[in-house]
């Protein structure tokens, strides 16, 4: 029997469609819903917002830093809440809260109101809703987690690929306030109700087995470990820091991408084209990364991602033609696709399900803190040197070191799991 309070969704037999794939789709939709609380989403309205409120670039970067640092604190309790109360309640409440905040932000007139509302959008979006989305997939999958996270990353990337140009077009045609109000209404009256109606926190809530039943030639599930035990493993820090430095670079580029390309002599249309190219190649990275993660060690995939990211960061200050800009966007997208798959699937595979919310919350807070620093690093670099180049070269060096560490660090046995060959008996 299904647990009380989980709704009247039908239970599946052993050979029926596994409801985990529905949960995965809703989790991907929830991650797309974090757009207004992420740097990439805020980047869509950065220039018109600054003009509207009369805010300078460094001041806006400082507002973003404060908002992201304070918003990252939402990661601290959300994992424990998910582990205790389940993803259904958390996703519904957080999505509704984020929608209300975005609606209020669309009407903000003062800098102090902007600071408060950007902070809340960071907390509910980039922090809380992101952790809840990732944990939901980890609660439904274990043996098939690399495949599931590859599908999740693919679905999420398609969602962002649709959302970015739609919101961007709305900003250009109707202004940032109307566009942001539309995003808020969608969260409040579409995502939140869908989460309440269809999300179930774990397969046990519907009387199902994890992964839809065990495959006979797969090894036992990895034993769950506590957050404290995970923090004592070098792999946690290497994987979390690698994802965080990627987030630092990506957030800074996303927030000031139009300005970065203008420094190289390109117009706003090139900026929007790079968004599409990056999103498309990230899809390819999700697909290829998910396949590789299911068959080999995740640390190799992370090392390749760091190598690609190093190349793209080092090349960005040198781009001079449309072809070079698009080549940069392709490599950056592939690196991002690989990093997403690794970050999404590593924690559950390596450390188990029981404390997954807490462990992913700890990793997420590092990425949020890094994303807060990214825009300020770039803004200060421009203010002091007149160019973004020094920051990109320095970041390329840091990423290269993390790539070497990713290739060498010992990882928990679950992350070294290799899926059986289709021809194995």
What does this structure look like?
The protein is mainly alpha-helical. The chain has one domain (20-201, 221-416): Growth Hormone, Chain: A, CATH 1.20.1250. The chain contains 16 helices and no strands. The protein has helices at residues 20-32, 39-43, 46-53, 57-71, 74-85, 87-105, 111-140, 145-174, 176-198, 227-231, 234-263, 268-295, 298-315, 322-351, 356-385, 389-408. Helix 7 (111-140) packs across helix 15 and helix 8 (145-174) crosses helix 14 (322-351).
Blueprint (SSEs and pairs):
Blueprint: H1 20-32, H2 39-43, H3 46-53, H4 57-71, H5 74-85, H6 87-105, H7 111-140, H8 145-174, H9 176-198, H10 227-231, H11 234-263, H12 268-295, H13 298-315, H14 322-351, H15 356-385, H16 389-408
Helix pairs in contact: 1-7, 1-8, 1-9, 4-7, 4-15, 5-6, 5-7, 5-15, 6-7, 6-9, 7-14, 7-15, 8-9, 8-12, 8-14, 11-12, 11-13, 11-14, 11-15, 11-16, 12-14, 13-14, 13-16, 15-16
Helix/strand/pairing class, anyone?
mainly alpha
CATH topology descriptor: Growth Hormone, Chain: A
Number of strands: 0
* Element string (H = helix, E = strand): HHHHHHHHHHHHHHHH
The rough form would be described as globular
Q: How many distinct folded domains? A: 1
CATH-level-2 architecture: Up-down Bundle
Helix content: over 70%
In the CATH hierarchy, what is the class? Mainly Alpha
Q: What is Rg? A: 21 Å
Low-confidence stretches: 1-6, 10-14, 216-221, 417-425
Overall mean pLDDT stands at 81
Biggest sheet architecture: none
CATH superfamily: MFS general substrate transporter like domains
Beta-strand content bin: under 5%
């Amino acid at each position: 029997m299904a647990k009380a309070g989980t709704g009247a969704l039908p239970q599946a037999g052993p050979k029926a469609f596994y409801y985990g794939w529905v949960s995965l789709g809703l989790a991907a939709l929830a991650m797309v819903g974090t757009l207004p609380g992420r740097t990439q989403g805020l980047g869509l309205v950065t220039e018109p917002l600054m003009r509207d409120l009369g805010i300078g670039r460094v001041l806006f970067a400082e507002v973003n830093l404060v908002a992201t640092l304070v918003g990252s604190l939402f990661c601290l309790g959300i994992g424990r809440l998910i582990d205790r109360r389940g993803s259904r309640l958390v996703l519904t409440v957080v999505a509704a809260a984020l929608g209300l905040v975005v609606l209020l932000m669309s009407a903000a007139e003062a800098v102090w109101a902007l600071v408060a509302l950007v902070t809340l959008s960071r907390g509910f979006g980039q922090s809380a809703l992101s952790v809840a989305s990732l944990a939901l997939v980890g609660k439904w999958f274990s043996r098939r987690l690399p495949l599931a996270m590859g599908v999740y990353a693919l679905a999420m990337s398609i969602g962002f690929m649709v959302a970015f140009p739609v919101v961007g077009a709305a900003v250009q045609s109707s202004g940032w306030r109307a566009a942001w109000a539309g995003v808020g209404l969608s969260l409040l009256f579409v995502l939140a109700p869908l989460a309440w109606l269809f999300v179930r926190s774990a397969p046990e809530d519907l009387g199902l087995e994890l992964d839809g039943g065990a495959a006979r030639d797969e090894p036992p599930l990895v034993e769950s470990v506590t957050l404290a035990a995970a923090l004592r493993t070098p792999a946690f820090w290497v994987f979390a820091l690698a994802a965080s430095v990627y987030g630092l670079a990506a957030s800074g580029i996303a927030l000031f991408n139009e300005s970065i390309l203008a420094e190289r002599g390109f117009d706003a249309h090139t900026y929007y084209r790079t968004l599409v190219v990056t999103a498309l190649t990230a899809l390819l990275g999700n697909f290829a990364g998910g396949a590789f993660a299911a068959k080999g060690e995740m640390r190799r995939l992370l090392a390749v991602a760091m190598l690609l990211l190093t190349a793209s960061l080092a090349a960005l200050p040198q781009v001079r033609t449309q072809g070079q800009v698009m080549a940069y966007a392709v490599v950056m997208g592939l690196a991002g696709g690989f990093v997403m798959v690794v970050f999404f699937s590593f924690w559950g595979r390596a450390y188990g399900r029981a404390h997954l919310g807490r462990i992913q919350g700890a990793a997420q807070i590092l990425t949020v803190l890094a994303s807060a620093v990214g825009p300020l690093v770039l803004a200060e670099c421009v203010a002091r040197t007149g160019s973004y180049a020094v920051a990109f070269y320095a970041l390329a060096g840091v990423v290269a070191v993390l790539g070497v560490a990713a290739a060498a660090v010992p990882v928990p046995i679950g992350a070294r799991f290799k899926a059986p060959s289709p021809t194995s008996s």
